[in-house]
Design brief:
By secondary structure, the chain is mainly alpha-helical. The chain is 59% helix and 5% strand.
Length: 194
């Protein structure tokens, strides 16, 4: 059975050479909104944790908000890392389903009922090994993004292997955050290509 969270990024063959120089500047309004959404998502995580531990169910509204937040974050990462040129929309569709229309697609299938109360109760502790995997692979990804910066700046292209690693890491990050934000009880795999 596939993990209930996946990412796909449509990357063009060529990207304007100047993009790496200004993407961070163009994202300032999004980063402000992202900070607010991130704080709300963590507060709702506590509410969701209480709901699941006491009822065994995750309220749909909480799952929809967390799904929107995770989709939004992946879109910002992909744009910030100049994997495409389409400016991310200020779209806050409160549903678990991917609305589409962007080169980045994050598909999530939240588990609303029949939750494992015990694994949710100890989620932060259980997530530590997966968090270490995300951090280590994230450091490698950060180095590749810096190298990709220079590759795009001078050639207008992401080297294919580096680009594929970065996109695969988005999947690793999304699977971990889907688990951490209580959208699933399925443990994230220690695999870039899951």
């Amino acid at each position: 059975m596939a993990y209930p969270a996946s990412v796909s990024v449509e990357t063009p063959d060529r990207i304007a050479n100047w993009r790496p120089l200004v993407h961070w500047l163009l994202l300032i309004p999004h980063l402000i909104i992202f900070e607010v959404l991130q704080n709300i998502a963590w507060l709702l995580n506590v509410v969701g944790w209480v709901a699941i531990v006491f009822t065994g169910k995750l309220p749909k509204g909480l799952a929809d908000f967390q799904s929107m937040y995770l989709r939004y974050s992946i879109r910002l990462y992909a744009y910030f890392d100049f994997l495409h040129e389409q400016y991310p929309p200020f779209a806050f569709d409160m549903s678990a389903a991917e609305p589409g229309g962007t080169p980045v697609s994050a598909d999530l299938e939240p588990q609303l009922t029949d939750r494992n109360r015990l694994t949710v109760a100890f989620r932060l502790i259980l997530a530590i090994p997966a968090g270490i995997f995300v951090a280590v692979t994230g450091l490698i990804t950060a180095v590749l993004v810096v190298l990709g910066f220079f590759a795009v700046l001078f050639t207008g292209r992401w080297p294919a292997g580096m680009r594929d690693w970065v996109v695969s890491w988005y999947g690793v990050s999304l699977r971990f955050n889907t688990y951490l934000h209580l959208l699933t009880d399925k443990y994230p795999p220690f695999n870039l290509n899951a």
